[in-house]
Amino acid sequence: MSSESNKSNENLSVNGTNPASSQPKASNDEKHVMISYNWESQKLAKKICKNLEKHGYKVWIDIKYMQKNIYDQMDEAVRNAYVVLIFVSKKYQESENCRREASMAADLKIPIVPIYTEKNFKPEKFLNCVTAGQLYHDFTSGKSFDSIFKELCSKSIDSVNMPKVLITTKSTPSHRTPTPIGTNYCSKHRKQICLLVFLLLLAIVGAAVGGYFGFIGTAADANPNLTTNSNSTPAANSDLPRSCRDHYTSGSDTSGVYTIYPISDPIQVYCDQVRDGGGWTVIQRRFDGSLNFNRPWLDYRSGFGSASGEHWLGLDLISTMTSGGVQELRVDFVKRIFSERGDAKYSSFVVGDLSTEFSITSIGTFSGSTGTPNFMQNALNTKFSTSDLENDMESSRNCAESEEGGWWYRDCVFLSDRANLNGRYDLHFEIGSSNLVSSEMKIRPRTG
Questions:
Q1: Angle (nearest 5°) at CA 299 between 294 and 304
Q2: Which candidate, 128, 123, 136, 113, places its Cα nearest to that of 33?
Q3: Nearest CA to 165 among 237, 46, 84?
Q4: Of 361, 224, 363, 234, whose CA–CA distance to 285 is shortest?
Q5: CATH architecture, domain defined by 224-445
Q6: Looking at the predicted structure, is the pLDDT value of residue 134 above 60?
Q7: Which of 23, 78, 154, 362 lies deepest, with the highest CB count within 10 Å?
Q8: Residue 126: exposure state from Cβ atoms within 10 A (0-12, 13-18, ≥19)
Q9: Is the pLDDT of residue 70 over 90?
Q10: Residue ranges of domains in the chain
Q11: Beta-carbon count within 10 A of 102 CB
């Protein structure tokens, strides 16, 4: 944003009034304006957010508040909105998570305001349904940002009446404390039934306590790559295994799926207990191409696949685990030609949090099998990129889109010292000039 634009925005008034940054403009200060957008529109989304906040609106945008389980936070953000700004584009229409947000807002009858970000694009299918007939604001029209922004506030946001949506909690966007379920119903209707239900729940809880640890294993099998908050605190019980290394030192020397507690919730991971002294927690695993790695940003954040098969652990967890102490990284791979095996090892591996867009901040020293290039060197201090969030330095194309997988791309020029371990399995899955048939990225706490 230019200094001239800043100056103009500072003097902008809405509905002829001066900005009132001290008070939110929503009539209920528990609610907010929600910005629902695809990552290709992030620059405009951030600019609109900044200007709305400058003029006193309470705004929810994922880059500030998306810190919990992604889908829980998405639900929370929509329910606490009194209006949702939808950034209309082809990429938005194709995004499953954007569909969830827009559809939920429509189901709850929360007013939707379309923001057009792609010139001449005509929404179809669900996007056409939720935006049809709504007053829209076209930021591709050639009009100044200030004039369109003023119309957005005066004609759409300020004119919205607070909807009568069932909100089961009261809090700020980043934290909510649940209201006891059924309180109003019990006090006004069938108290006897509620009492019976309460007693039944007590009996179930009592029976469940004894089988708690057995239940954890069953629950984890149902959801092996549990989505967790990257800011969650570690388990309070220090006896719980925090990594595959803890299982190994306790005598578990067979590779397979184990439960660990790097945070307060149980996580299912694959442990390599054989190679190079064992104790390795696998964060990426590919061996047959059965799992599609060409996925959006939110999938790479939360993780996908099964711990017992091909999978990606998730950037939130990788960041948490590599930031809690010195971790070393090992990559084992098999080349497609002659099934040649290779490995690479880095003495320190640290991935930053969401605020850095999961940049690699340390790789330490490199060692590897003969002929293996130092391929992570090119990824150092580089943000993670996906097809819907481009963070590479290539001006002509989106590397994650062209390589068909999320990675720490600096540019799309694929030289002998680069790697793309998440690219398309039969085409872009490679290290240097060698196409691969399998890879495992794994970490463990460094000793000594």
A1: 85
A2: 113
A3: 84
A4: 224
A5: Alpha-Beta Complex (3.90)
A6: yes
A7: 78
A8: middle
A9: no
A10: 3-171, 224-445
A11: 25
pLDDT digits (tens, 9 = 90+) for 77-109: 899 999 999 999 988 988 888 888 998 998 898
* pTM strictly above 0.70: no
Structurally, at CATH architecture level, domain 3-171 sits in 3-Layer(aba) Sandwich (3.40)
State whether residue 142 is helix, strand or coil: coil
Same fold, 3-171 and 224-445: no
Residue that is written with structure tokens 């194709």 in the block: 94
State the Rg of the chain over Cα: 25
Neighbours of 209 (CB within 10 A): 9
DSSP for 360-392 reads EEE---EEESTT---TTGGGBT---BBTTB--S
Q: Which amino acid is at 298?
A: L
Determine the Cα–Cα distance for residues 230 and 176; give it in Å rounded to an integer. 17
**CB under 8 Å to 111, separation ≥6 — which residues?**
82, 83, 84, 160, 163
Reading the block at residue 313, the tokens are: 């652990």
Contact by Cβ (8 Å): 68, 117: no
User: Per-residue pLDDT tens for 361-406?
Assistant: 999 999 999 999 999 999 999 999 999 999 998 888 999 999 999 9
Token representation of residue 403:
């390589």
Q: What is the mean pLDDT of the chain?
A: 79
Mean pLDDT of 32-58: 89
Query: Whose CA is closest to 307, among 446, 440, 444?
Result: 440
* pLDDT value for 197: 55
More confident residue, 266 or 29: 266
